[in-house]
Structure formats: C-alpha cells, structure tokens
Design goal:
This protein is mostly helical. It is built from nine helices and no strands. It comes from Candidatus Viadribacter manganicus.
C-alpha cells in the first residue's frame, strides 16, 4: 500500500518550529520547504494562500490544542494556585526543551506580521480570545467574579507570553517561575 503524503503536516510542523525560533518575517518559503523536506509542488497544492495561510493554520492548530489543555486542566478540579503553577511549569519545560531558542509561536508571529496580513490578524485575535476565555472560565469556576476573571485572564496571558520572551532572552526558566508567583498573588488579590 502506498504511503500517504505527509507533506502538509510536515510543512505545518516545520513552520511552527521556525516561527517559534524566528517569528513570521524571519523565515522564507525556501527554508520552510527545506526544513519540512516537502516537495516544492506540494506547497501551493496544500496552501494556495502561501505563507500567510501556513501561518494562520499554525496559529489555529496551536490555539485549539492550547485552549483544550487549559480546559482539561481546569476540569481536573485543581485549585487556582495549582492551575497557575501547572501552566507555568509547562511553559518553562517548553522553553527549556527548545534550549531557549524559541518562544510561543503565537507571540512570535504576532510580533512580526504586517498590516496587510489580515488572515494572520484574525487568527491571532481569535487565538488569544479563546485562551483568555478558557483561563477566565477556570478562574470563575474557582470563585472569582466575572469582571475579575477577565482581568486575571488578560494579565495571565500577557505574563505567559512575556515569560516566553524573557526566557528566550535570559536563557533561563526564571521568568516562568516569577510569572507564576505574580499570577498567584494577583489571583489572591482578585478573589
């Protein structure tokens, strides 16, 4: 039986890793094809919208998986402090696993896309909104009122993304630990 082509998935995986390391503007199609080992002809077959479509699909896939992880963690019944610590332990592990060469691919793309990249703008906005909602829902389920849960979720997301950037710059997991502690303090203050 013939092997089904994985060119599409290989390109998305390579793009995610490249975006994580160098942002959206930092990579080109030739490098993406080289890293994914995908045939050139498969690029526009799978992604007729080119690099912008690839970026949007990376964002959408990562957004969906991460929001699901937030919801699963919240559904586990843990308290808010444990939720916070668990998320930031995971982000610290991710930073360390890529030897501090990368950050969250969403933040990396968000920092480098242009005003004409409408598809990316929508994908990034929807991604962050989904994450904020999942975090706010977790906070509300643990007794925080709706207004404060929204404030907490926005600050949590900003701290999480900022921790990735600082971790890359400092080559350390300390920003994740510090962000976790700050979010625990904020959760206490808002509860």
């Amino acid at each position: 039986m013939a092997k089904v082509s994985s060119a599409r998935e290989d390109m998305l995986a390579a793009a995610s890793n490249l975006f994580r390391e160098r942002g959206y503007q930092g990579i080109g199609i030739a490098e993406l094809l080289e890293k994914s080992r995908a045939p050139r002809g498969s690029l526009y077959f799978h992604f007729p919208g080119g690099k912008e479509q690839i970026g949007a699909e990376v964002i959408n896939g990562f957004a969906t998986r991460t929001a699901a992880r937030f919801r699963e963690l919240a559904a586990s019944g843990i308290d808010l402090d444990t939720f916070i610590v668990s998320v930031f332990k995971t982000t610290a592990k991710e930073s360390k696993a890529c030897e501090f060469h990368g950050s969250c691919p969403i933040a990396a793309i968000a920092a480098g896309f242009g005003a004409d990249d409408k598809l990316l703008a929508v994908a990034i906005k929807d991604c962050f909104a989904a994450w904020e909602q999942a975090i706010a829902d977790a906070a509300q389920a643990r007794g925080m009122n709706e207004k404060n849960a929204g404030i907490f979720a926005s600050a949590f997301l900003a701290s999480m993304e900022g921790a990735f950037v600082l971790s890359k710059a400092q080559r350390s997991t300390a920003p994740h630990v510090n962000a976790s502690r700050a979010m625990q303090a904020l959760a206490t203050a808002l509860s």
